[in-house]
Write a structure and sequence with these properties.
The complex is a heterodimer of chains A (121) and B (110). With 121 residues, chain A is mostly beta strands. In chain A, 0% of the residues lie in helices and 50% in strands. Classes of the chains: A mainly beta (121), B mainly beta (110).
Chain lengths: 121, 110
């Protein structure tokens, strides 16, 4: 079964850092763009960042630009999200999602179950 | 980038049809056909229901259909079933090479 499994979430103080990982299995990871989407408590889905397949072009929401970095290791079938200068409003469930294509069309056909990030003192 | 506008909640009875709207701007919905719809049951992973405005992924019931008129995209669910009760989100590609989601619509099947 095609699968994405996130890890790395947890409790962090404001201003701190966290790195999320997303392990992919049973599909050719390197062929597809990958994306992070988050959902704050009681709120809707929010697109965070996308990285294309091999050339690694990256795109960010204004709310995280300059603080978050998306990356991928195609040899390990793993997607990452490095989150720095975390704020309380970054508290959310973070999902990784597979794009249908190699470029960011915005149709995410496979999703992980999410990892919870809580930013609080 | 402002979120796309969706009704916060809608309700209908089993067997009825319902249409959820998603309003954007010329920089997103009106400018591209890269509109997707997701079904999200709380505590579970979101599920892609419609992509590229009108296309259904394999395994999605043909009771779900998508359309667009100007800056408003729509998701229509016909023959409502209890299992359709969920949150629904639209999303669109934007002129800034980013994505934007709608605020979400909570669908209740009475």
């Amino acid at each position: 079964e095609v699968q994405l499994v996130e890890s790395g979430g947890g409790l962090v103080q404001p201003g701190g850092s966290l790195r999320l990982s997303c392990a992919a299995s049973r599909f050719t990871f390197s062929r597809y763009a990958m994306t992070w989407v988050r959902q704050a408590p009681g709120k809707g889905l929010e697109w965070v960042s996308t990285i294309t397949d091999n050339n690694g072009s990256t795109y960010y929401a204004d709310s995280v630009k300059g603080r978050f970095t998306i990356s991928r290791d195609n040899s390990k079938n793993t997607l990452y999200l490095q989150m720095n200068s975390l704020r309380a409003d970054d508290t959310a469930v973070y999902y990784c999602a597979k794009d249908r294509l190699s470029v960011p069309e915005g149709a995410y056909d496979i999703w992980g179950q999410g990892t919870i990030v809580t930013v609080s003192s | 980038q402002s979120a796309l506008t969706q009704p916060a909640s809608m309700s209908a009875s089993p067997g009825q049809s319902i249409t959820i709207s998603c309003t954007g701007t010329s920089s997103d919905v009106d400018g591209y056909n890269y509109v997707s719809w997701y079904q999200h049951h709380p505590g579970k992973a979101p599920r892609l229901m419609i992509y590229d405005l009108i296309n259904r992924p394999s395994g999605v019931s043909n009771r779900f259909s998508g359309s667009k008129s100007g800056n408003t995209a729509s998701l229509t669910i016909s023959g409502l079933q209890a299992e359709d009760e969920a949150d629904y989100y639209c999303s669109s590609y934007t002129s800034s090479n980013t994505q934007v989601f709608g605020g979400g619509t909570k669908l209740t099947v009475l």
